[in-house]
Amino acid sequence: MNLSVVIPLLNEAESLKELHDWIAKVMQSNHFLYEILFIDDGSTDDSWDIITKLAHENPSVKGIRFQRNFGKSQALHAGFKAAKGDVVITMDADLQDNPEEIPELYNTIQEGGFDLVSGWKKKRYDSVLFKNMPSKLFNWAARRTSGVRLNDFNCGLKAYRNEVIKTIEVSGEMHRYIPVLAKSAGFTKIGEQIVQHQARKYGKTKFGMERFINGFLDLITIWFVSKFGRQPMHLFGALGVLMFTIGFGFAIYLGIDKLFINKAGRLITDRPQFFISLTAMIIGTQLFLAGFLGELLTRSKKNETRYTVSEEIKSPKQEKQYTE
Which residues form the Glycosyltransferase 2-like domain (predicted)? Predict the structure, then answer.
């Protein structure tokens, strides 16, 4: 199979039929073998009914329905797990991403040798004050922190080599940083392609200003996990040793001062240096223990499912295999 198009969605009933027809037209005109994976992230409108109808009309359409809203990252995780195409395209369901971009993204991956190509909505039709400017600031911080030279981390239209999405773990709200996760996993051929942005046609955005705050917190988490996630002791252990050494140094100084230099002076416990020393050694010990526990957790980590699937539509061929 050439392509898997993964589309996470929440209450996008109005746009699904139009988006499906558009994608199918592009796929057929380019003679791609494809599948469209709609991941319904707990919609309360008629989205799932429409996906079910589309799957009956087009065997290339598959659907996964979450029991409730678990978030875009979890929806992408489920889509990545089910995707079978050599190249996996992700796009939003609100018609702001243009399916006509898919063939060029596919060719860039296959012929250009890229692991990942991210769309760049260079010209946007969003609010300048509430979306464009915060987005530019957010992207600048992400570039500086991660070292991934992308202009638009948050663009939903991206293309991946299949090995990439089968390797990385997308969780929490980390969908914005899939390129960073890919780089951390060793997929360094990351490119960017200018894509056309279209104004939202139906409904309203599901993301508010809080996404930028959450985005920065996620960015810090990504930085920490990618740098120290596999060896937390390297951070906490080093800080613990430093703090303990400072505290122990103060204790040695107080002991020498009391025993040999200023024997008639104040008791050690009456001096503020004693409490500084004690506090530093306690903090150092705690940091060291935190690093030790982090190492234990890292080694005992198991794959956990972070969502519950209530229904799933498979291709007719797969259903036949299950019944045999």
Answer: 4-165
